[in-house]
Amino acid sequence: MYFVDAAHFVLGAFLAILWSFRRIFVETASGRQRLNVLGALNAVTKEMVTIINTTYINAWSVIELIRKIRELHPPGKRVVLILDNARYQACYLVRSAARMHAVELLFLPPYSPNLNLIERVWKFIRKKCLNCVYFKDFKKFSAAISDCIGKFGGEYRAELQTLLTWNFQTLTKPERSAA
Questions:
Q1: How many distinct structural domains can be found in the chain?
Q2: Partners of residue 34 on adjacent β-strands
Q3: Range 37-41 average pLDDT
Q4: First-to-last C-alpha distance (Å) of the chain
């Protein structure tokens, strides 16, 4: 079971906390260079499968991710991808490719990012390698993100185990009072 989503990291200032009595200017890179990461988080092992580019995430990117995930698992083994309702993920092309590769797609309800575990990963990456760090160029920025993802199985494993638990808030139906 994999939780799938894309993140678009733009080279610039990622401020965590900034409070001051006087005005402070924070050095930041100029431009709008963007690193796109389409990720699939294995819900059990906490390993990531990614497609990284600097152009766009589209249906073909999702199909490439499906192929990569299918290669990791033997034929006949059930593979489920949990996705949001992004247009490029729910299109006919992606659904056809999923059927062809024997991958089941499960779509989350609209406007429910809190149910997608990988959203916690994107927040973790911002916190660990982007917040309050100045990157002189896009190459160093990209390397920092890739390096952070690469440490998921080692250095960050313990932190991710506690962060990526299956604890979701459930809402119960309100009790009706007899009036």
A1: 1
A2: 10
A3: 94
A4: 46
Compute the Cα dihedral for 125, 127, 129, 131 and give only its sign: positive
Residue 168, in any domain of the structure = no
> Which structural domain, as residue segments, surrounds residue 142?
2-15+26-163
**CB-based contacts of 140, cutoff 8 Å, min separation 6:** none
Q: Could you tell me the pLDDT band of residue 167, with boundaries at 50, 70 and 90?
A: low
The token pair that represents 162 in the structure block: 């506690």
Query: Quick one: how many helices (H) and strands (E) in the chain?
Result: 5, 5
Phi-psi region of 158 (alpha: psi -120 to 50; beta: other; left: phi over 0): alpha
Tokens standing for 27? 């050095």
- Strand pairing partners for 37? 7, 52
- Asked if 11 and 49 count as a contact pair (C-beta separation under 8 A), the reply is no
